[in-house]
């Protein structure tokens, strides 16, 4: 069944993957309740309305049932509304024709006299005054509404959506002709979550606490749900797990920094208090551990349903791992901790480079995720250097499901990678992964060196070079419009 | 620290082969009620090392878990309650986890186990460097990938 899916006009790259993930979660691709894992192609059919293009907020999507469509829309963060489309046209005359030709048996059940309804006029790229809106609604009188109007709590919500003639000001490439849609609302995102969870009202924050909207998107990509166990190996202040816990998952987190994970800023300002603040169940486990040397027992396999994290990639915060620099280089022998100092000894740590960190993460996830479990993490990309399509770390156990870019500055973006475990972890797989990783590392020599990413993002631009750079960019064949910035 | 965490952890000191289960030294045990989630418990049951859970719960002062358990018992409410209580409601607030092979104590403070290793626990023997080779001058180029080398030797 086709639905009109209208998105909030932001985080464009994240919109379709979110709907696809939720479709999987709510069984649009068949039931996966029995723990049976199958690797068949799982994606929804999408279409773009006439005269629109991929970055437009209006999309058509084929979802098996209205029930599933409603669940997807209500759980999502970026779906403004999912609608049963009753008609569309480039003018109000065309719209009328289209609505009148829509089968009565689909329309009449929602127009009955004992029902309540509301019609909302919405626009994209332009504004319509109150008076004009009223006229537009009255212009719909050819639809035989028999029910009563109820603006506060109607049973049926109808939407009249108008777009601008020309997309000059909405940051999108121009559309050839405007399009008007009329549909019955099936569901929509509960954006009230965002002010509730916004970072500025959270008690315990760190410098890289994940923005609430993004954390919810990550939790959706990870299919967080009741009965599942979600792990964050770089838990920090818990901002990612808070979102997973909101969706009912059990959470577990680790961090190498004991001050962050244990002490926080006092008894009422720590990771636990962040969960308490929202009345969420506490993480079932928090520990101090090194992602480079994970402390999991060897017999423990496939225990996590999802791993979600924002690894430290050295731009705003650098990663650390056990061992001193000199020690790991082999320049010094390990410091032997005297027995009387063992209890209070603070082990030295060394910088943990991005590639190494990602390698450890993939290895851990390959071992510890259930089949079909998801690994969701951010990966930084230098915008000038990389064309982002084929530069991501991969692993034989995982299938890359979604790549969503968020542009952070002129120079760099972060990309949310969603991977699904499609093959069990074996010795042979581990070996293949190791070879892949070495290849990856060789192709990214520049990146694996600690500090390079940081300087690429923050370094001073040589004024003499700027001119040359500018001309290079003006020749850039890729159209640069606001699309991804919103 | 709940016992579910204890059930997942082992001592990962290099060279230790029997790092599980960690012995619990309990100084302060608290009970924190958690809403029961049967689906989660059923998911976790097969992944739990039952004997380790039973032993750990006894040290924490809870002796109601049966010595043996099988998945059919998950249908019994009474068993589910006990399993839930042992797995998720018993907290080790202060104490330590002790490596069964080396007696190294991993402290548990404010409910958080500190599993970070000391410098001399990262390598198999004293002075064995996993970096190998020469020691070129620039730090960044010579940065060694501990995990690569160790994964070779562990594989």
Automatic annotation (TrEMBL), chain A:
Domain annotation Ribosomal RNA large subunit methyltransferase K/L-like methyltransferase: ranges: 201-323
Alphabetical keyword list: Cytoplasm, Methyltransferase, RNA-binding, S-adenosyl-L-methionine, Transferase, tRNA processing, tRNA-binding
PROSITE patterns: N6_MTASE (PS00092), SAM_MT_TRM11 (PS51627)
Every tRNA (guanine(10)-N(2))-methyltransferase TRMT11 N-terminal domain range: 51-191
A single MF term (Gene Ontology): tRNA (guanine(10)-N2)-methyltransferase activity
GO cellular component: cytoplasm; tRNA methyltransferase complex
One BP term from GO: methylation
InterPro entries: DNA_methylase_N6_adenine_CS, RlmKL-like_Mtase, SAM-dependent_MTases_sf, TRMT11, TRMT11_N
Keyword Cytoplasm: yes
Location relative to the cell: Cytoplasm
Pfam families: Tmrp11_N, UPF0020
UniProt superkingdom: Eukaryota
Primary location: cytoplasm
UniProt-listed Enzyme Commission number(s): 2.1.1.214
Official protein name in the record: tRNA (guanine(10)-N(2))-methyltransferase
Record organism: Quillaja saponaria
TrEMBL record, chain B:
CDD domains, per database record: Trm112-like
Record's keyword annotation contains Methyltransferase: yes
Gene3D superfamilies per UniProt: 2.20.25.10
Gene Ontology MF terms: methyltransferase activity; protein heterodimerization activity
Gene Ontology biological process terms, A to Z: rRNA (guanine-N7)-methylation; tRNA methylation
Keyword tags: Methyltransferase, Transferase
Superkingdom of this protein's organism: Eukaryota
Keyword 4Fe-4S among UniProt keywords: no
Assembly: Interacts with TRM9.
Family from the record: Belongs to the TRM112 family.
Protein name, per record: Multifunctional methyltransferase subunit trm112-like protein
């Amino acid at each position: 069944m086709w639905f009109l899916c209208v998105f909030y006009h932001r985080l464009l790259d994240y919109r379709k993957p979110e709907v696809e993930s939720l479709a999987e979660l709510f069984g649009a691709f068949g039931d996966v309740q029995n723990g049976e894992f199958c690797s068949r192609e799982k994606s929804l059919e999408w279409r773009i309305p006439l005269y629109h293009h991929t970055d437009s907020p209006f999309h058509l999507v084929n979802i098996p049932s209205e029930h599933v469509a409603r669940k997807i829309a209500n759980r999502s963060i970026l779906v403004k509304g999912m609608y049963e489309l009753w008609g569309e046209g480039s003018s109000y005359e065309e719209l009328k024709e289209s609505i009148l030709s829509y089968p009565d048996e689909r329309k009449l059940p929602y127009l009955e006299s004992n029902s309540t309804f509301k019609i909302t006029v919405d626009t994209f790229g332009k504004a319509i005054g109150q008076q004009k809106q009223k006229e537009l609604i009255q212009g719909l009188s050819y639809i035989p509404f028999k029910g009563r109007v109820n603006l506060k709590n109607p049973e049926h919500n109808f939407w009249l959506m108008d777009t601008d003639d020309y997309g000059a000001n909405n940051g999108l490439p121009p559309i050839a002709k405007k399009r008007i849609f009329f549909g019955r609302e099936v569901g929509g995102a509960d954006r009230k979550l965002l002010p509730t969870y916004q970072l500025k009202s959270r008690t315990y924050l760190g410098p890289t606490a994940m923005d609430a909207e993004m954390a919810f998107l990550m939790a959706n990509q990870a299919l967080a749900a009741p009965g599942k166990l979600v792990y964050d190996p770089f838990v920090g202040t818990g901002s990612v797990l808070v979102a997973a816990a909101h969706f009912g998952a059990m959470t577990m987190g680790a961090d190498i920094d004991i001050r962050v994970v244990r002490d926080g800023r006092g008894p009422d300002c720590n990771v636990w208090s962040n969960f308490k603040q929202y009345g969420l169940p506490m993480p079932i486990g928090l520990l101090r551990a090194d992602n480079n040397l994970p402390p999991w027992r060897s017999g423990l396999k496939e225990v996590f349903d999802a791993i979600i994290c924002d690894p430290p990639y050295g731009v705003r915060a650098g990663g650390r791992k056990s061992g001193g620099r000199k020690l790991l280089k082999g320049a010094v022998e390990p410091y032997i901790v005297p027995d009387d100092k063992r209890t209070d000894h603070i082990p030295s740590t060394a910088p943990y480079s991005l590639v190494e960190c990602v390698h450890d993460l993939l290895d851990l996830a390959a071992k510890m995720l259930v089949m079909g479990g998801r690994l969701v993490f951010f990966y930084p990309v230098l915008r000038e250097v990389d064309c982002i399509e084929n530069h991501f770390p991969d692993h034989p156990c995982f299938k890359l499901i979604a790549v969503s870019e968020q542009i952070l500055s002129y120079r760099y973006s972060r990309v949310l990678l969603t991977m699904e475990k499609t093959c069990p972890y074996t010795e042979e797989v581990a070996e293949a992964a190791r070879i892949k990783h070495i290849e990856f590392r060789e192709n990214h020599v520049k990146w694996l060196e600690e500090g390079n990413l940081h300087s690429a993002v923050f370094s001073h631009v040589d004024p003499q070079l700027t001119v040359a750079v500018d001309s290079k960019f003006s020749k850039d064949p890729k159209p640069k419009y606001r699309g991804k910035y919103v | 620290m709940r016992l579910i965490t204890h059930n997942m952890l082992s001592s990962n000191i290099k060279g230790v082969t029997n790092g599980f289960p960690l012995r619990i030294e309990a100084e302060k045990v608290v009970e924190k009620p958690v809403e029961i989630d049967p689906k989660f418990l059923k998911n976790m049951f097969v992944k739990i090392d039952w004997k380790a859970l039973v032993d750990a719960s006894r040290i924490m002062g809870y002796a109601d878990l049966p010595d043996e358990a099988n998945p059919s018992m998950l249908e019994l409410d009474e068993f589910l309650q006990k399993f839930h209580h042992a797995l998720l409601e018993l907290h080790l607030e202060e104490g330590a986890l002790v490596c069964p092979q080396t007696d190294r104590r991993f402290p548990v403070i404010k409910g958080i186990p500190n599993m970070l290793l000391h410098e001399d626990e990262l390598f198999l023997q004293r002075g064995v460097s996993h970096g190998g080779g020469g020691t070129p001058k620039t730090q960044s180029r010579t940065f060694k990938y501990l995990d690569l080398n160790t994964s070779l030797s562990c594989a």
